[in-house]
Amino acid sequence: MHELLRTFIRRLTARFRRRRLEDDLDEELRSHLEMGIELNMRKGMSAADARREALRSFGGVERTKEMYRDQRGLPMIETAWQDLSFGIRTLRRSPGFTLLAILCLTLGIGANAAVFSWVEGILLRP
Asked: Are 25 and 68 in contact (CB under 8 A)?
């Protein structure tokens, strides 16, 4: 339980230190690639071939970055935040639809509350 809480707090704080963590990740990936290039050059490859082989053996750099970002963040909260911002942008773009959506939600919530009050008064607490 403590480990789960510690992981959650670490991921939450990583959300606010994104730039520094991204710089650290870039530096670490760069050092791994440089070590691979150096190892390949010791094997007798040219600089271009050593770099190409190091990139190939390392795998996709961008894929590795995405896997790291997924591990350090809170994917559920980030996805919800992206959906919310997309919804707000969409509603801001079409004010007529926004007004209609708000009106429908208001009527639906009001009707639901009225029916529940009626059912509670008549059936549940006569």
From this structure: yes
pLDDT tens, position by position, 32-57: 888 988 988 888 888 888 888 888 88
Minimal CA–CA distance to 68: which of 30, 14, 6?
A: 14
Kindly report the number of other CB atoms within 10 A of residue 40's CB atom: 19
Q: What is the pLDDT of residue 109?
A: 97
Handedness of CA 4, 60, 15, 87 (dihedral sign): negative
Alpha helix stretches (DSSP H) within 17-94: 18-42, 47-58, 61-72, 75-93
57: left (phi over 0), alpha (psi -120 to 50) or beta: alpha
The answer to whether residues 58 and 33 touch, using CB atoms and an 8 Å cutoff, is yes
How far is it, in rounded angstroms, from Cα 34 to Cα 41? 10
Dihedral through CA 56, CA 62, CA 63, CA 66, nearest 10? 160
